[in-house]
Amino acid sequence: MKIDVYNANGSKTDKSVTLNKSVFGIEPNDHAIYLDVKRFRAAQRQGTHDTLHRGLVSGSTRKIKKQKGTGTARAGSIKNPLFRGGGTTFGPEPRDYTQKLNHKVKQLARRSALSYKAKEKAIMVVEGLKMEAPKTKDFAGLMNGLEMANNKTLMVLPSANDNVFLSSRNLRKHRVMVASDLSTYDIMNCNTLIFVDDAHKVIEGMLK
Questions:
Q1: Contact by Cβ (8 Å): 88, 52
Q2: Is the distance from CB of 118 to CB of 19 less than 8 angstroms?
Q3: 2-38+100-207 CATH choice from 3.40.1370.10, 3.30.70.1110, 3.90.950.10, 3.30.1330.10
Q4: For residues 99 and 110, what is the distance between their CA atoms, to the nearest angstrom?
Q5: What's the pLDDT tens digit per position in 130-164?
């Protein structure tokens, strides 16, 4: 599949790049995408939620009344969950939400997501993108030139570039990340993928 190349001003050049069919042209596997997105979102959870059960509530463990003859239910401690100020019953406790997924399934998921974007013609390539300093106005101008100002885009860089990253940080609909960090969730969570220079080759090297 051939993709047109645009310059840093947003104008189409006479160049084009060919995307690897084994990465951008496979039959997408929806279940692999589902598993990898679920794994990614689960990994974002901190799992630090906690409540005080009766073993953690401060207070005496003295039996507050005799066992029988009071006409009410028996109670062994003021920390009983039935009492005000008592412990929480079956409350959440700190836990790790990480889910394991085989490496080949994760690769299949990313190839499937990229193939969906290729089928939808939602992939662009931009060359010669350079920013001397972080300027949101310059990045917004590039998006206007590409007619992507109102689209949810993900710009993928071949290597880290702080100026480009910082220039996009205040724009709600645009994100920038390095090719090596690209996940299935990131691919599916944008309308258009924008590869800068050889970023697509970095991804092909990882997923072939």
A1: yes
A2: yes
A3: 3.40.1370.10
A4: 17
A5: 888 999 999 999 899 888 888 999 999 999 999 99
Distance, in Å, from the CA atom of 22 to the CA atom of 85, rounded to the nearest integer, reads 61
Contact 114, 187 (CB under 8 A): yes
The two three-digit tokens of residue 190, written as one number: 């944008």
Q: Which two tokens stand for residue 23?
A: 């990465």
What digits encode the pLDDT tens for the residues 79-124? 999 999 999 999 999 999 999 999 999 999 999 999 999 999 999 9
Sign of CA dihedral 174, 129, 131, 114: positive
- Asked whether the beta carbons of 2 and 15 are under 8 A apart, the reply is no
